[in-house]
Specification:
OB fold (Dihydrolipoamide Acetyltransferase, E2P); about 50% strand; mainly beta; about 0% helix
Length: about 120
Amino acid sequence: MISAEFTTATEWCGRPVARKLVDATPRGRVVITGTVREVATVRVGRASSYRCLLDDGSGQIDLLFIGRSTIPGLCVGTRCTVEGTVIREANHLVVWNPLYRLEPDDNPSELPGGGLSSGSDGRT
């Protein structure tokens, strides 16, 4: 990812910036944090594209990375923040080539002993 900041603006080209998917509209801007629920490599025209289904708790949106067969770190269960312009395709919302940032997991897995692993020997 490039070193860039997500917009903090409340409007983008005269339209509100949605911070929840329930508020997203086609041709509007979104800045959404959610969890990746599904991933797949799909064809868009002649290009292989990486598709992620992002769920923010208020709705779901497809993220399409055109020309990419995978995105390191973007896999099922990953939390991330994305920014982009929404379009409607086949009755669902899509953002093509969004700006994205991986986010820390809200609920890191605990070890049976109750601690969090920081090394291969199980010590915390």
